[in-house]
């Protein structure tokens, strides 16, 4: 069974991002970039399948600029066998990524594609679902457990009320949730080994995909600053404040 893990290069989750002064986006100059955390979980899941003898090959795929090769090397150090970069300078939105990934899937013919449930930069949470629609494959999103046997995947999904278990006929798309696994610590020998693993570079033009954005960002703003709190003298005053507090319109839990 061949597994593709989709990995995106994003601003590291520890970085506090700042909005550019002209409000056209977030300033990513000189900030630490890393593999999207949910994609690290996807690569770990695929690697565990390989180690368990369920997968025969794990291919990490990223779409983005040349720097995304670093992200692919991280995936190779976790355990992917080889990597594919779709090299493009275009501003990539989920539909464009899904089209590029579909073209790679058509070429590679994997049995399973694992993506993150969301990229922590755009928080779109769309690419896996769009890819499943373009391929017309079954999908299981927000996976917290995956078992593969005899051409079927049984996936436990994190849903509002608890967990849902579904069976999918392969080939299929799965997106990872946080509880699926805890990715391994990448060791120095594995980082060295990853440098020698194959990394192929394709272009959007070679895949016959136009990655131009469909949506235009009008303005990016910092979230409103939190209002300062008040110190109440005692519990009675706190209760009085809580009782008199009116819920904001359309509040949700
Ligand atoms: P999103 O829909 O942007 O929140 O992304 C969901 C998932 O799609 C990510 O966790 C990745 O697995 C995959 N993905 C998004 N953008 C890319 C990209 N440029 N290259 C490879 N995979 C991507």
Describe it for me?
- By secondary structure, the chain is α/β, with parallel strands linked by helices.
- It has a single domain, classed as 3-Layer(aba) Sandwich (Rossmann fold).
- It has 6 helices and 11 strands.
- It has helices at 37-51, 68-78, 94-108, 127-135, 188-195, 235-244, and strands at 2-6, 9-11, 33-35, 57-64, 82-87, 112-116, 139-149, 152-159, 162-169, 172-176, 199-203.
- A 9-stranded mixed β-sheet has the order 9-8-7-10-6-1-4-5-11, sandwiched between helices. A two-stranded antiparallel sheet has the order 2-3.
- Helix 2 (68-78) packs across helix 5 and helix 3 (94-108) crosses helix 4 (127-135).
- The longest helix is centred in the first third of the chain and has 15 residues, at 37-51.
- 35% of the residues are buried.
- The structure holds adenosine monophosphate.
- Adenosine monophosphate is lined by residues 6-8, 36, 38-39, 42, 62-64, 92, 94, 97, 115-116, 118-119, 122, 124-128.
């Amino acid at each position: 069974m061949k597994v593709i893990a989709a990995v995106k290069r994003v601003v590291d989750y520890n970085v506090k991002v700042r909005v550019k002064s002209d409000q056209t986006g977030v300033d990513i100059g000189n900030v630490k970039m890393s593999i999207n955390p949910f994609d690290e979980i996807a690569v770990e899941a695929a690697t565990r399948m390989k180690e368990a003898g369920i997968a025969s090959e794990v291919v990490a795929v990223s779409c983005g600029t040349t720097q995304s090769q670093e992200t692919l090397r991280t995936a190779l150090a976790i355990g992917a066998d080889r990597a594919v970069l779709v090299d493009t300078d275009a501003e990539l939105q989920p539909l464009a990524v899904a089209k590029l990934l579909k073209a790679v899937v058509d070429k590679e013919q994997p049995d399973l594609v694992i993506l993150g449930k969301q990229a922590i930069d755009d928080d779109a949470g769309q690419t896996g679902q769009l890819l499943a629609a373009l391929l017309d494959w079954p999908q299981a999103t927000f996976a917290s457990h995956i078992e593969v046997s005899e051409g079927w995947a049984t996936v436990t999904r994190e849903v509002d009320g608890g967990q849902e278990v579904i069976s999918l006929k392969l080939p299929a798309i799965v997106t990872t949730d946080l509880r699926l696994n805890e990715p391994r610590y990448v060791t120095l020998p594995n980082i060295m080994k990853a440098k020698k693993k194959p990394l192929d570079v394709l272009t959007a033009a070679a895949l016959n995909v136009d990655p131009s954005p469909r949506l235009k960002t009008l303005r990016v703003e910092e979230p409103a600053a939190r209002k300062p709190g008040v110190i109440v003298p005692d519990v009675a005053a706190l209760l009085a404040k809580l009782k008199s507090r009116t819920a904001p319109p359309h509040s949700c839990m």
